Amino acid sequence: MSTAETRADVRERRAWYVYDWANSAYVTTVATVLFLPYLTVVAKRAACPGRDTDLACPVDLHVLGIPVSPGSVALYAITAATLISAVFLPVVGAFADRSDRKRVILARLAWTGAASASAMVLVSGTNWQLGVVLLILSQFSLASSLVVYDAILCDIAPLEQRDAVSSRGWAAGYLGGGLLLAINLGVVTAHDSLGLSTEAAVRISLLSAGLWWGLFTLVPYFGLRDRPAVHRVSDDPADRSPATLTQLLHTLRELRRYPQAWLFLLAYLFFNDGIQTVIYASSIFGQEQLGFESNQLIVAILLVQFVAFFGALIFGWVARGAGPKNTILGGLVLWCVVVGIGYFLPEHRFGLFLLLAVLIGIVLGGTQALARSLFSRLLPHGREAEYFSLYQCCERGTSWLGTLIFGLVYQLTGSYRDAIIALVAFFLVGGALLTRVDVEQGIADAAQEEPLAA
């Protein structure tokens, strides 16, 4: 490889990193911190006009004649988005695999999500329906863009460099998301001196996340290169059919040849569902159950964002001796501890809430990083991208049961504490399945040459 080619590759990878920097701003500011609690306030205002939104609303909203608690609206919207993603992400992946212009597909999906996030500035008063539509559209656009983003990783990095390139992208995401969140913390905290109400400051922050996502997507759009598609459409009419699920079904059938990878994926579905629900529900729990303000929630999530980077490094160091499987199992025990502490955490004790945020950050970065690396050990050589596409589909498109259970438990009991303690079941089931994964056998099944610790 020439020096010019080497420099071109480095520049392209840096452009690829920037997309994680871009979309993570939406993940932290909108999906994790601000919009779910804000949508809950708007829904409560619609159901109980004239009532203090800090108080519980005893009146249900109605969606297609079905009563829905305003406190569950945001969670049900996330559930709807993830169910839609579960159906359509494989279609997006199949389409991208057959395209010569993945960077264009990535950008268009990203700009659709960014436009949806920016339009959240228009959600005000009692217009919770608009908020639900924009949340579903932005979440689906994010998940779809990440499927394409992960596929591009296989184009820009050879196998021996893929771990390092992927990790740098992840690090860029933590940094970018944390930086914009810190800026928005300043806006929300100093809203009075800026001549803004708290609600206006929140809406401006939502707009900033959408603009950040859209503008920084220009870097990968112009910095990535187009490549010929590996899988082209054949002359078979069935192969040329649009939006076919044939590729997903084929991958699932083939996955049966690797039972340890299949078992790990099943375990991952459960414990990742619990992790994602904690992420989505933490801001609602902090605001509605523990009585914290938006600026306090931003501080906590910002702390999680930066600690998670170091958590991944700590877990990686532990895994050198204990192995990734045992380290993940230890992380799931810590997740149960996190949920248990959250259940008993007293109201308005922000210092204790920050300590819990540190623990969440450590375990969040560690379990996510090691889950991906462990799964990679169980995959047949040369087909990693195909199976990681399925992994991404599971991560973004099937994490719906936790938010559904959280919303249902709250609707039945009226307590977010009862809702959050129910999430322990996801970590217990996921951990029980993970204990049955034979990593050494999985490596042998995948015919990988280098033995790795279990």
TrEMBL record:
Membrane in keyword set: yes
PROSITE patterns: MFS
Domain Major facilitator superfamily (MFS) profile stretches: 24-442
Organism name: Spongisporangium articulatum
Keywords: Membrane, Transmembrane, Transmembrane helix, Transport
UniProt membrane topology term: Multi-pass membrane protein
PANTHER family: AUTOPHAGY-RELATED PROTEIN 22
InterPro entries referenced in this protein's UniProt entry, alphabetically: Atg22-like, ATG22/LtaA_families, MFS_dom, MFS_trans_sf
Source organism phylogeny: Bacteria, Bacillati, Actinomycetota, Actinomycetes, Kineosporiales
Subcellular localization: Cell membrane
SUPFAM superfamilies to which the protein is assigned, alphabetical: MFS general substrate transporter
Pfam families, per database record: ATG22
Membrane-traversing stretches: 21-39, 73-93, 105-124, 130-149, 170-188, 200-224, 262-285, 297-319, 326-345, 351-375, 396-413, 419-437
Name listed for the protein in its UniProt record: MFS transporter
